[in-house]
Amino acid sequence: MKHFILFIAAILSCLTGFAQGGYDPSGPGDPNPYRKLSVLASPKSGGSANSHNGSQIAVGQTVTCYANANGYYDFVHWLQNGEIVSDNSYFTFAMPDEDVEMTAVFELNYNPESPDDPQEAKPSHRVTITSVPGIGGYFNSQAFRLCEGDSINVYAYPNNGYHFEEWLLDGILVSTKNPLNIKMTDKDLNYTARFSYNPVNPGDPAINMFNPTTGEMVIDRFNPGYLSSAIYDLLGNSYDYSQITSLVISGIMDVSDFGFAYNLSDCAVIDLSRTNGYTEIPSYAFESSTALTEIILPSCINSIGRYVFNSCKNLSVITCLAVMPPSLSYGAFAGVDNSVIIRVPAQSLDLYKNASGWNDFTILTADSDMYSLTVSLPSDAGDGRYRNMSIELLNTSNGQSYRYLITDKTEYIFDNLLSSTEYSVSVKNNKNEILGEISSLKIVDKDISAQFQSLRQPKNIAVKVMTPDENDITSEVTIKWFNYANELLQQGPTLSRVLENSVISYSITLPLHLQKIYLQPSSQTITILEQSVLTHTLDELGTGILKGKVCDADGKGISTAIITISQNINGAYTGSEIAQCDDDGNYEIEVTNVPIKVSISANGYIGQTKDLQTPTDIGHIVLEKNTGITVYPSYTFQASTTTDQETSDWFNDNNVAYLIEDLDGNEILDCIYQSGSIILPIGIKIGDKINVVVYSKNNLFNRVTQTVSINSKSVYANLNIVGYGGISITTTDDSAATGICILYDMAGIQIGKSRFRGNSISFENLPDGQYTVISMQKSTLLGSVSNLSSFQETQLVRGSDYLLDNVNVVTGQITNINITDIPDLDETKLYYTDSKETYFMPNKSQLTIGNYVTLKAKLTIKDEYAEAINAATLVVDIPSNCELVDNSIISGAGYLGYEYADNRLSVPIKNLSDAIRFCVIPVEGGNCKSSAFVKLVIDNNEILQPIGTVYFEANNFSLSVPQKTSKTNIAIRGTATADSEVKIYDNDILVGTTYSMPNGQWSLNLSLYKPYSKSIHNLYGEVVTQDGKRLLTQSKTVDYDQGYVDLSKVTMVYNNSIIVFDHLNGRNTANSYSYAPGTTDFTFIADFTENNPEKISNVIIKILASDGSVRSLPADYNATSGNWVVRTKYADSNKLPVNVTANYQLNTKTSMFDIDRYNDDMLNFNGYLETTISSLANGTSEIISDSDKKREIAIIPHGENSTEYITIEQIDYHQLKAEFEILSKISLEDENRSFCYRDTI
């Protein structure tokens, strides 16, 4: 069917004749056959597809479908019954004898890098258009904003007597074409259109002739839109239009040119057969042309407007050269006598006789002055090598083209060609590339022929990628082919059917594991001369030895020094490794031969950083001993409670952080923050005073400040922390299980929502202030309204629909509320929209402050209310930590007017079916919640109905790590302000550095510091912004277990597209895919680092869709493929998969050392293990000489000796300290057991 459609479209779109020899038109059948045409867009958010949607179209009628992509989307192709029929946004075909569903497929042009960030929004800039001279012309749009990367066409319309010449950008010539296609860059653009006066040279004798004696006028040189000016100039000083009795026009016309007929009071014959550039005779074009007796219409038209020939009483002959009868609008032939003869192409005679409106007249053939051109292909065409390519005939005078699809024949005949006309003929492939061309074919009162002797041949070219040791790794890399304009031609190792002598380029992209070994190849440009297989051998990056010695000022080696190596490889992979010094301070490590950033640190010393181009022997690194003053902070913690509670001297929270400030509250820079201590910079001296500040990185308590005097080299500060307060809500209502409580802060912003569990709800960790609690029955829309004021604007009534309580929260206290009855709520009466077709959604769920997020609202009014609505307004509450992007509100009709005040956006809705999009920018970090409403005016009553709430998180900085892993080298990622330095610490040891990208994203592959089975690693990030500001991320825990099985990847298979979500490395193999309506099956395949069904069970595939929804689907183990597979359907183009992960149950035995196994036995672990570990066993532990140099731990009852140590490799004091700070609730109440450690010598 696909080829049939292409064949029909190629022949019938604008051709004035069918190929002779073998064509036998079938009988007319039903005199009025009509079929339904449906034109769809996929996804709906991608753009619009217009033309006759849902209409009944006459069989054989030429139909043009056109697609317009929305912002951030690109048009891909047209589908008919799931098959691609065209990749042009404007697509013309002939209606077959069956219902047709044409679908315009759009593709989101974003680059999803993680499940948190499916796409990146784009900043916009201003475009200004001016004309020179100022009266030279005007434009379809003169000043507007355009997002980076988006395109728009700007049309220049010359004023009378002026001609468009060229486009200038900042005074530099950029184009002579009209319209100008503008693709937005990263700055404002100022274009100038230059016009010239009097475009036609009156001294040119070969153009535009008029014989006043005979009244014959020929116009064959004019600019579109200037036909009337050309006629006016030919009349000379008389300007007497009544002299014109016959008018022949040749060239490209604009619809506005049809005003020429208004003054032709005595013109009897008008010949438009040689014109092109339009598809419709506009309404009223020849109305009341009473002198008109004959008119010839061109083959390019497909419709005739209203009253075109109204009251043309003397019209006797209409020649219409269109192959398909143009559709007739109301009154097209009103007042025309039925005796008029219609002359049409011979092969179209039956079509006109059966076409409504045309069949009211006598239909005859138009054979006079019509000739043919026979085109012959080369003899090698007989083997079918040119099949499905096209032969195109171009009328060089008016630009009209005719096209045949090449089949098995070698000879093609173009009929019904006009005499005294010049043509060119070419053979083109489906990429519109020319294989051969014959020009200057003139038809003068006879048939002619043209023979292609030879054509450029299509060739196949392939690339084979080899390693230096001659291993073929082509299947592991991505190869893309591009044409001379850098447009993607094909992806894969082979480029097929590319024409000889074509200049093409190809790129090779290495996967992550190869980027660590080989140099990323540069793009290669070649000229295709013959079929061949190119071999590309990769170059190894190579490795080198980084070595040196770390020593103190006396030259003594520092054995405790840590060497952190960070490298950016191939611009895409950032990796870090750690080296440790031996007893003499020496270190040596093999690393990739690329630039290196080396950080050297040791407790008690001032660290250093060095940048190296290649690994080398950097010799002695001398670290100066830190002789500064040391602060030892500690704290007590009291949780909030309804009753007095004794303070605790230990609080297990890794997100407690310290800060040193001066007495004015300014941070003192260059402090060295170490585990349990802070070393002050040298400028701080004994006798000074400082502020020691403790704060919560996850906002669990108010910052506490203590001013201390520095009286010695060691300063101790103890800070009393009291946790934030909270609210406890209880009820005796038996229906509480369906009830919810919504919490609004003192600014009226919703900060929490929860449902009752066991007749109670609690909100914890609330900063001091006045809060409002709404209690009501569960409601998806009403329960998510972000602003209290907006909630109170709805039709809900306090007391009968909901309860409201004002609560004052103070630090350290839980405030109680008791509710007796939760009101019933009938919300069905409140909704005027169809919930299935109404939505409000963001384009991302997480971003860094300063970047754009696009919000999109779409509503569909229920049928029963549609006619009653007098006005509609979209109302959106913008989060207080976000700013609206000026003039970013757009819909299908273009930019919209709006009002914006007090963080509320109001947009009058002109077309209820149009989606509305706009952009906001988070300016402060935190959770962002925005609610949208539609304000309807019905019977002079205003109704505010919520349509949805969106959530997204804006980060100053963030850190994402795997919670558990079996890998000593892990991939982590996060966000930070643009171009900031990011340092990652593992248990306070620097393990990697990198820099955030301009969009705030960063990623890093790092080695865990001293991992051993069941070791626990506290990772946190330190972000240093460009202005020197220091920020800390929350701490994240990574549990390392050699026996653990990691999720390796989830593969999504859809319609022959494969996308791999690589969870080990945090990357995807593709950025987008095309969705074809009707093809709804998706397959998801989960792979683990060990696909062992005895270890892995209960695999659940979790799929994030483009609307923010998540599906959780159980996957089955496939013994054949050795992985877990699930299949599902996605039929809604607004809800398509964008990222995938998997949850699973791991069935493994406990490792030999398992801290959790000892549970309460370790509750008496005493503080920080200090320096004398043996004292913890009250002198009972002993250090035994052991040649194996193993490190061991044991649980020893008090008063007993024990040699039953558990051996652990690669464990040290700092690791143990961190281990127990995390996993133990330290208490001194139980003195039955002690924890012992020894490092044998």
Automatic annotation (TrEMBL):
Residues passing through the membrane, by range: none
Organism per entry: Muribaculum intestinale
Superkingdom to which the source organism belongs: Bacteria
Signal peptide: 1-19
Name of the protein this chain belongs to: Bacterial repeat domain-containing protein
A Pfam entry, by short name: LRR_5
InterPro entries: Bacterial_rp_domain (IPR044060), CarboxyPept-like_regulatory (IPR008969), LRR_5 (IPR026906)
Annotated SUPFAM superfamilies: Carboxypeptidase regulatory domain-like (SSF49464), L domain-like (SSF52058)
UniProt KW keywords: Signal
Gene3D superfamilies: 3.40.50.12480, Carboxypeptidase-like, regulatory domain
Region of interest (Disordered), residue spans: 26-53
Domain (Bacterial repeat) ranges: 39-109, 128-198
Recorded coiled-coil stretches: none
Keyword Signal in record: yes
